[in-house]
Amino acid sequence: MRIVALAGGIGGARFLRGLRQAAPEADITVIGNTGDDISLFGLRVCPDLDTVMYTLGGGINEEQGWGRADERFTIREELAAYEVGPSWFTLGDRDFGTHIVRSQMLDAGYPLSAVTEALCARWKPGVRLLPMSDDRVETHVVIEDAEGRRAVHFQEWWVRLHAQVPARSIVAVGAEDAKPAPGVLEALEAADVVILPPSNPVVSVGTILAVPGIRPAVAAKTVVGVSPIIGGAPVRGMADACLTAIGVETSAGAVAAHYGPDLLDGWLVDTADSDLDGDLDGIAVRSRPLLMTDVDAAAAIARAALDLAAELGS
Ligand code: FO1
Protein backbone atom coordinates (compact mmCIF):
# COMPACT_ATOMS: atom_id res chain seq x y z
CA MET A 1 0.00 0.00 0.00
CA ARG A 2 1.29 3.50 -0.87
CA ILE A 3 0.54 6.17 1.70
CA VAL A 4 1.35 9.88 1.52
CA ALA A 5 1.14 12.08 4.63
CA LEU A 6 1.44 15.88 4.80
CA ALA A 7 3.25 16.62 8.03
CA GLY A 8 4.30 19.58 10.12
CA GLY A 9 6.17 19.35 13.37
CA ILE A 10 5.68 17.63 16.68
CA GLY A 11 2.11 16.28 16.41
CA GLY A 12 2.65 15.19 12.83
CA ALA A 13 5.92 13.42 13.62
CA ARG A 14 4.41 11.55 16.57
CA PHE A 15 1.49 10.47 14.40
CA LEU A 16 3.87 9.26 11.67
CA ARG A 17 5.69 7.07 14.20
CA GLY A 18 2.33 5.43 14.85
CA LEU A 19 1.53 5.18 11.14
CA ARG A 20 4.80 3.39 10.49
CA GLN A 21 3.95 0.89 13.27
CA ALA A 22 0.35 0.48 12.05
CA ALA A 23 1.39 -0.22 8.46
CA PRO A 24 4.92 -1.65 8.57
CA GLU A 25 4.61 -3.06 5.06
CA ALA A 26 3.35 0.18 3.52
CA ASP A 27 5.42 2.52 1.37
CA ILE A 28 5.09 5.85 3.22
CA THR A 29 6.05 9.20 1.72
CA VAL A 30 5.98 12.24 3.98
CA ILE A 31 5.64 15.69 2.43
CA GLY A 32 7.15 18.00 5.03
CA ASN A 33 6.35 21.65 5.69
CA THR A 34 9.24 24.04 5.05
CA GLY A 35 7.42 27.29 5.82
CA ASP A 36 8.82 27.21 9.37
CA ASP A 37 12.38 27.24 8.02
CA ILE A 38 14.63 30.04 9.27
CA SER A 39 18.17 31.23 8.57
CA LEU A 40 20.21 31.76 11.73
CA PHE A 41 23.94 32.31 12.27
CA GLY A 42 24.47 31.77 8.56
CA LEU A 43 22.77 28.35 8.71
CA ARG A 44 19.46 27.09 7.31
CA VAL A 45 17.25 25.48 9.98
CA CYS A 46 14.32 23.28 8.88
CA PRO A 47 12.36 22.60 12.09
CA ASP A 48 9.53 20.48 10.68
CA LEU A 49 11.76 18.34 8.45
CA ASP A 50 14.18 17.82 11.34
CA THR A 51 11.39 16.98 13.80
CA VAL A 52 10.09 14.24 11.47
CA MET A 53 13.64 12.99 10.72
CA TYR A 54 14.73 12.94 14.37
CA THR A 55 11.43 11.50 15.68
CA LEU A 56 11.33 8.64 13.15
CA GLY A 57 15.11 8.22 13.27
CA GLY A 58 15.24 7.87 17.05
CA GLY A 59 17.18 11.05 17.79
CA ILE A 60 14.42 13.36 19.00
CA ASN A 61 14.29 15.02 22.39
CA GLU A 62 11.14 13.12 23.36
CA GLU A 63 9.70 15.41 26.02
CA GLN A 64 10.25 18.55 23.93
CA GLY A 65 9.20 16.99 20.64
CA TRP A 66 11.85 19.03 18.81
CA GLY A 67 15.64 19.17 18.82
CA ARG A 68 18.04 16.39 19.63
CA ALA A 69 18.19 14.03 22.57
CA ASP A 70 21.26 14.12 24.82
CA GLU A 71 22.03 17.70 23.81
CA ARG A 72 24.67 20.13 25.02
CA PHE A 73 24.63 23.88 24.41
CA THR A 74 28.27 24.94 24.28
CA ILE A 75 27.89 26.72 20.93
CA ARG A 76 24.85 28.56 22.27
CA GLU A 77 26.91 29.64 25.31
CA GLU A 78 29.70 30.93 23.09
CA LEU A 79 27.27 32.88 20.90
CA ALA A 80 25.76 34.44 24.03
CA ALA A 81 29.26 35.37 25.23
CA TYR A 82 29.71 37.24 21.96
CA GLU A 83 26.24 38.73 22.47
CA VAL A 84 25.27 37.32 19.11
CA GLY A 85 21.55 36.51 18.94
CA PRO A 86 18.87 35.58 18.65
CA SER A 87 18.89 33.88 22.00
CA TRP A 88 15.19 33.07 21.95
CA PHE A 89 15.64 30.13 19.51
CA THR A 90 17.45 27.32 21.30
CA LEU A 91 19.86 25.36 19.13
CA GLY A 92 21.92 22.56 20.65
CA ASP A 93 25.37 21.38 19.59
CA ARG A 94 24.13 18.18 17.98
CA ASP A 95 21.37 20.08 16.15
CA PHE A 96 23.98 22.54 14.86
CA GLY A 97 25.64 19.54 13.20
CA THR A 98 22.53 18.99 11.10
CA HIS A 99 22.28 22.66 10.14
CA ILE A 100 25.98 22.83 9.19
CA VAL A 101 25.72 19.77 6.93
CA ARG A 102 22.48 21.07 5.40
CA SER A 103 23.85 24.58 4.83
CA GLN A 104 27.10 23.28 3.37
CA MET A 105 25.15 21.19 0.83
CA LEU A 106 22.74 24.04 0.03
CA ASP A 107 25.70 26.38 -0.49
CA ALA A 108 27.25 23.79 -2.82
CA GLY A 109 24.08 24.00 -4.92
CA TYR A 110 22.20 20.90 -3.83
CA PRO A 111 18.40 21.38 -3.63
CA LEU A 112 16.70 20.92 -0.26
CA SER A 113 15.20 17.63 -1.44
CA ALA A 114 18.70 16.20 -2.11
CA VAL A 115 19.94 17.56 1.21
CA THR A 116 17.02 15.98 3.06
CA GLU A 117 17.69 12.64 1.36
CA ALA A 118 21.35 12.84 2.40
CA LEU A 119 20.51 13.64 6.02
CA CYS A 120 17.96 10.80 6.07
CA ALA A 121 20.65 8.37 4.86
CA ARG A 122 22.02 8.68 8.39
CA TRP A 123 18.74 8.74 10.28
CA LYS A 124 16.90 6.07 8.27
CA PRO A 125 13.40 7.32 9.27
CA GLY A 126 11.70 4.39 7.51
CA VAL A 127 9.66 6.77 5.32
CA ARG A 128 10.59 8.86 2.30
CA LEU A 129 10.79 12.44 3.57
CA LEU A 130 10.32 15.11 0.90
CA PRO A 131 10.25 18.84 1.48
CA MET A 132 7.06 20.34 0.04
CA SER A 133 9.26 22.44 -2.27
CA ASP A 134 12.93 23.11 -3.04
CA ASP A 135 12.00 26.77 -3.37
CA ARG A 136 12.17 29.06 -0.37
CA VAL A 137 8.81 29.53 1.34
CA GLU A 138 8.75 31.28 4.71
CA THR A 139 5.75 31.83 6.94
CA HIS A 140 5.63 35.36 8.28
CA VAL A 141 3.10 36.78 10.70
CA VAL A 142 1.78 40.34 10.58
CA ILE A 143 1.36 41.70 14.11
CA GLU A 144 0.58 45.07 15.60
CA ASP A 145 2.24 46.03 18.89
CA ALA A 146 3.98 48.97 20.53
CA GLU A 147 6.47 49.00 17.68
CA GLY A 148 3.63 49.39 15.21
CA ARG A 149 2.38 47.04 12.47
CA ARG A 150 5.07 44.74 11.15
CA ALA A 151 5.78 41.25 9.86
CA VAL A 152 7.86 38.87 11.95
CA HIS A 153 9.14 35.41 11.04
CA PHE A 154 6.80 32.66 12.19
CA GLN A 155 9.46 31.37 14.58
CA GLU A 156 9.74 34.72 16.31
CA TRP A 157 5.95 34.88 16.73
CA TRP A 158 5.77 31.20 17.82
CA VAL A 159 8.85 30.96 20.05
CA ARG A 160 9.71 34.49 21.26
CA LEU A 161 6.15 35.87 21.41
CA HIS A 162 4.50 32.52 22.23
CA ALA A 163 1.81 33.50 19.69
CA GLN A 164 0.48 35.81 22.41
CA VAL A 165 0.44 38.86 20.13
CA PRO A 166 -2.59 38.42 17.87
CA ALA A 167 -1.68 37.70 14.27
CA ARG A 168 -3.33 40.14 11.89
CA SER A 169 -2.46 37.77 9.06
CA ILE A 170 -0.26 34.78 8.37
CA VAL A 171 1.54 34.80 5.02
CA ALA A 172 3.45 31.94 3.41
CA VAL A 173 5.93 34.21 1.66
CA GLY A 174 6.96 32.76 -1.70
CA ALA A 175 4.38 29.98 -1.74
CA GLU A 176 2.66 31.23 -4.88
CA ASP A 177 5.93 31.02 -6.84
CA ALA A 178 7.07 27.72 -5.33
CA LYS A 179 7.05 24.42 -7.20
CA PRO A 180 6.44 21.03 -5.57
CA ALA A 181 9.75 19.33 -4.85
CA PRO A 182 10.80 16.46 -7.14
CA GLY A 183 8.79 13.37 -6.30
CA VAL A 184 5.97 15.17 -4.50
CA LEU A 185 3.36 15.10 -7.29
CA GLU A 186 4.50 11.65 -8.39
CA ALA A 187 4.04 10.29 -4.85
CA LEU A 188 0.58 11.84 -4.64
CA GLU A 189 -0.36 10.47 -8.05
CA ALA A 190 0.71 6.95 -7.04
CA ALA A 191 -0.83 7.11 -3.55
CA ASP A 192 -3.59 4.74 -2.47
CA VAL A 193 -4.45 7.12 0.36
CA VAL A 194 -3.42 10.55 1.61
CA ILE A 195 -3.42 11.19 5.36
CA LEU A 196 -3.49 14.62 7.03
CA PRO A 197 -1.90 14.06 10.48
CA PRO A 198 -2.96 16.21 13.46
CA SER A 199 -0.51 18.94 12.45
CA ASN A 200 -1.28 22.64 12.56
CA PRO A 201 -3.93 23.07 9.83
CA VAL A 202 -2.82 26.64 9.07
CA VAL A 203 0.97 26.91 9.25
CA SER A 204 1.82 23.26 8.58
CA VAL A 205 -0.75 21.44 6.42
CA GLY A 206 -2.09 24.74 5.10
CA THR A 207 1.35 25.87 3.96
CA ILE A 208 2.00 22.58 2.15
CA LEU A 209 -1.38 22.89 0.39
CA ALA A 210 -0.49 26.46 -0.61
CA VAL A 211 2.28 25.24 -2.95
CA PRO A 212 0.62 25.36 -6.40
CA GLY A 213 -0.27 21.91 -7.66
CA ILE A 214 -0.26 20.10 -4.32
CA ARG A 215 -3.85 20.74 -3.22
CA PRO A 216 -5.48 19.43 -6.44
CA ALA A 217 -3.16 16.40 -6.43
CA VAL A 218 -4.22 15.63 -2.85
CA ALA A 219 -7.91 16.27 -3.51
CA ALA A 220 -7.86 13.74 -6.35
CA LYS A 221 -7.16 10.98 -3.81
CA THR A 222 -9.00 9.43 -0.88
CA VAL A 223 -8.03 11.77 1.94
CA VAL A 224 -8.50 11.13 5.66
CA GLY A 225 -7.51 13.74 8.24
CA VAL A 226 -7.01 13.52 12.00
CA SER A 227 -8.29 16.46 14.00
CA PRO A 228 -5.62 18.44 15.87
CA ILE A 229 -8.39 20.00 17.97
CA ILE A 230 -10.09 18.07 20.76
CA GLY A 231 -13.11 19.54 22.54
CA GLY A 232 -12.40 23.04 21.25
CA ALA A 233 -8.71 23.17 22.17
CA PRO A 234 -5.52 22.20 20.37
CA VAL A 235 -3.83 19.08 21.76
CA ARG A 236 -0.49 20.92 21.87
CA GLY A 237 1.04 23.94 20.27
CA MET A 238 -0.99 27.01 19.55
CA ALA A 239 -3.09 26.04 16.54
CA ASP A 240 -5.93 28.05 18.07
CA ALA A 241 -3.92 31.27 17.66
CA CYS A 242 -3.36 30.37 14.00
CA LEU A 243 -6.99 29.42 13.37
CA THR A 244 -8.20 32.66 14.97
CA ALA A 245 -5.82 34.58 12.73
CA ILE A 246 -7.60 33.21 9.66
CA GLY A 247 -11.08 33.52 11.14
CA VAL A 248 -11.68 29.82 11.75
CA GLU A 249 -13.23 28.67 15.00
CA THR A 250 -11.08 26.34 17.11
CA SER A 251 -13.16 23.19 16.80
CA ALA A 252 -12.85 19.81 15.12
CA GLY A 253 -15.82 20.59 12.92
CA ALA A 254 -14.57 24.02 11.87
CA VAL A 255 -11.17 22.63 10.87
CA ALA A 256 -12.85 19.94 8.75
CA ALA A 257 -14.98 22.61 7.08
CA HIS A 258 -11.86 24.75 6.59
CA TYR A 259 -10.12 21.89 4.76
CA GLY A 260 -13.41 21.41 2.89
CA PRO A 261 -15.29 18.42 1.41
CA ASP A 262 -13.44 18.91 -1.89
CA LEU A 263 -10.27 17.91 -0.04
CA LEU A 264 -11.38 15.70 2.87
CA ASP A 265 -13.23 12.41 2.45
CA GLY A 266 -12.89 11.29 6.07
CA TRP A 267 -12.20 13.03 9.38
CA LEU A 268 -11.26 11.41 12.69
CA VAL A 269 -12.38 13.33 15.76
CA ASP A 270 -11.94 12.59 19.46
CA THR A 271 -14.75 11.05 21.48
CA ALA A 272 -15.18 14.51 23.03
CA ASP A 273 -16.48 15.58 19.60
CA SER A 274 -18.56 12.49 18.88
CA ASP A 275 -21.55 14.76 18.19
CA LEU A 276 -19.94 15.24 14.77
CA ASP A 277 -20.15 11.52 13.97
CA GLY A 278 -21.73 10.76 10.62
CA ASP A 279 -21.80 13.02 7.60
CA LEU A 280 -20.41 16.56 7.84
CA ASP A 281 -21.14 18.32 4.57
CA GLY A 282 -20.04 15.25 2.63
CA ILE A 283 -17.13 14.40 4.95
CA ALA A 284 -17.44 11.05 6.78
CA VAL A 285 -16.71 11.71 10.46
CA ARG A 286 -15.78 9.01 12.96
CA SER A 287 -14.92 9.55 16.63
CA ARG A 288 -12.35 7.66 18.71
CA PRO A 289 -9.74 8.58 21.36
CA LEU A 290 -7.19 10.84 19.65
CA LEU A 291 -4.65 11.49 22.41
CA MET A 292 -1.29 10.09 21.25
CA THR A 293 -0.14 9.12 24.74
CA ASP A 294 2.41 6.68 23.32
CA VAL A 295 3.39 5.06 20.03
CA ASP A 296 0.76 2.33 20.41
CA ALA A 297 -1.96 4.99 20.83
CA ALA A 298 -0.66 6.80 17.74
CA ALA A 299 -0.63 3.50 15.85
CA ALA A 300 -4.25 2.80 16.82
CA ILE A 301 -5.27 6.24 15.51
CA ALA A 302 -3.30 5.68 12.31
CA ARG A 303 -4.95 2.26 11.90
CA ALA A 304 -8.39 3.85 12.30
CA ALA A 305 -7.51 6.47 9.65
CA LEU A 306 -6.40 3.77 7.22
CA ASP A 307 -9.54 1.71 7.94
CA LEU A 308 -11.74 4.74 7.28
CA ALA A 309 -9.85 5.41 4.05
CA ALA A 310 -10.35 1.79 2.97
CA GLU A 311 -14.07 2.06 3.75
CA LEU A 312 -14.37 5.30 1.76
CA GLY A 313 -12.06 4.33 -1.06
CA SER A 314 -13.82 1.06 -1.82
N1 FO1 B 1 10.43 25.64 19.89
C1 FO1 B 1 10.43 26.42 21.02
O1 FO1 B 1 9.37 26.59 21.62
N2 FO1 B 1 11.57 27.01 21.48
C2 FO1 B 1 12.76 26.88 20.85
O2 FO1 B 1 13.76 27.46 21.28
C3 FO1 B 1 12.81 26.04 19.69
C4 FO1 B 1 14.00 25.82 19.01
C5 FO1 B 1 14.01 24.89 17.93
C6 FO1 B 1 15.20 24.55 17.30
C7 FO1 B 1 15.21 23.65 16.25
C8 FO1 B 1 14.01 23.06 15.83
O3 FO1 B 1 14.02 22.15 14.82
C9 FO1 B 1 12.79 23.39 16.44
C10 FO1 B 1 12.79 24.31 17.49
N3 FO1 B 1 11.59 24.64 18.14
C11 FO1 B 1 11.60 25.44 19.24
C12 FO1 B 1 10.30 24.10 17.70
C13 FO1 B 1 9.79 24.84 16.48
O4 FO1 B 1 9.57 26.19 16.74
C14 FO1 B 1 8.48 24.14 16.08
O5 FO1 B 1 8.70 22.79 16.15
C15 FO1 B 1 8.03 24.27 14.65
O6 FO1 B 1 8.56 25.28 13.96
C16 FO1 B 1 6.51 24.31 14.69
O7 FO1 B 1 6.05 23.08 14.28
Summarize this structure as a short list of keywords or feature phrases:
314 residues; alpha/beta; 3-stranded antiparallel sheet; globular; magnesium; FbiA/CofD; CofD-like_dom_sf; transferase; 2-phospho-L-lactate transferase
**CA-CA gap between termini:** 14 Å
Order of strands, main sheet, comes to 5-2-1-9-10-13-15-14
Low-confidence stretches are none
The number of distinct helices, counting runs of at least 4 residues, comes to 12
Query: What average pLDDT do the residues reach?
Result: 97
Sheet of most strands? 8 strands, mixed
| Number of beta strands | 15
Listed once per kind, the bound small molecules are: ligand FO1
Structural class: alpha/beta
Please write the string of helix (H) and strand (E) elements.
EHEEEHHHHEEEHEHEHHEEEHHEEEH
- Gyration radius, to the nearest Å? 19 Å
InterPro entries: CofD, CofD-like_dom_sf, FbiA/CofD
Organism: Actinoallomurus vinaceus
Protein name: 2-phospho-L-lactate transferase
Keywords: Magnesium, Transferase
